Structures are given as C-alpha cells and as structure tokens.
Amino acid sequence: MGERRYLEEQGRVIYGLKDDNAQLKRDNAQLKHDFKELRCQIEETNRADKVAINKIRRRVLLDMDRDQLATICGHKNWREWKDEKTTSTPGDDRSVQTLMTEAEVILENSPDASDYWKAVGQDRSTLRFLVHRSHIRTEGDIVAHNSTAEAIAESVLALTASSDRTHMISIFRSLQ
Question: pLDDT tens, 9-30?
C-alpha cells in the first residue's frame, strides 16, 4: 500500500511539473514576442537617431565651410560677413546674390583657394546651396562640431536627394 501511495504522489508531482513546463513554454513564447517587439522599437529609434545625427553633421559641414569661405573672402567669420551684407528687408535675396558674387570673384582669383574651392565658386548651384541654405548654428551643436571628417562624410553620403548630395560632396571636398 505504501508503494501505491508513493506512485500516486509521484504521479501528482509529474503532472504538476508538466503544468509548470507548459506555463514556462507560454511565458517563454511571450518573452520572445516582447523581445522581438522591443528589438524593432530599438532599431527604429536607432534609425531615427542616425537620421538626426546625419542632419546635424551636415549642418556642421555647412557651418564650417561657410566660415572657411568667409575667411577666404577676407572676413573674420560667416556671421560677420553675412551680417555685413544683409539688408533689413526679410526675404530679400539681394544679400545672397551679393555674397555669391563676391565669393565667385574671390574664389576665381584667390591664390589661397584650393581647386575644390574654385570648383565650388564655379558652380552657382553649389555656391547658392552653401550661401543660402539654413541659418548658421551657434555652439549648441558642440558635440556635432567635434564630428570626425569620416563621420561627416558618412552623413553626406547618406543623403538621398542627388542634387543635395552632389552639392554637399563638393562642399565637403573644399574643406579637405
């Protein structure tokens, strides 16, 4: 009789273990599903972060090139040069034209301008892209301004719009 009771007890233990195992399988399946969903969210966040970082790096490239262009053109920095040429009329394109004309003449004749800078000066579309696009950033992008040339190049190559990419490649080369 003791042996029978022992076997019944073992049967209940085994049945309980089977129930526990089934629950563990359900929990494991749920964890796998949750992990997959979390991984997708992390990948989406990483993609969004990379897009944002690329935008910042491209702004940094434009800021650096604008400052270098201003220096080549005999000014302290971009902001000073732009402020000197800006009129009080919002949206007035004359200041952009003035900057472009001055830059074209100086880049064509300057012994300090590299061949890449001369190429930027000869391509009105690229020069306009550099001079007219977005406002100069302040030191709020300190980390981005410390981006390596390789990181900035990667961000430029990530551009999908072919004309923007072409302009940014020319601008990037002029900094080298």
Answer: 888 889 888 999 999 999 999 9
Q: Is the CB of residue 131 less than 8 Å from the CB of residue 96?
A: yes
pLDDT classification of 118: cutoffs 50, 70, 90: very high
**From CA 64, how far away is CA 57, in angstroms rounded?**
10
Give the angle 114-164-146 at the CA atoms, nearest 5°.
65
Residue 123 burial by Cβ neighbours in a 10 Å radius (0-12, 13-18, 19+): middle
Q: What is the DSSP string of 20-77?
A: HHHHHHHHHHHHHHHHHHHHHHHHHHHHHHHHHHHHHHHHHHHHHHHHHHHHHTT-S-
- Whether pTM exceeds 0.85: no
**For the segment 83-97, what is each residue's pLDDT rounded down to a tens digit?**
887 765 655 567 788
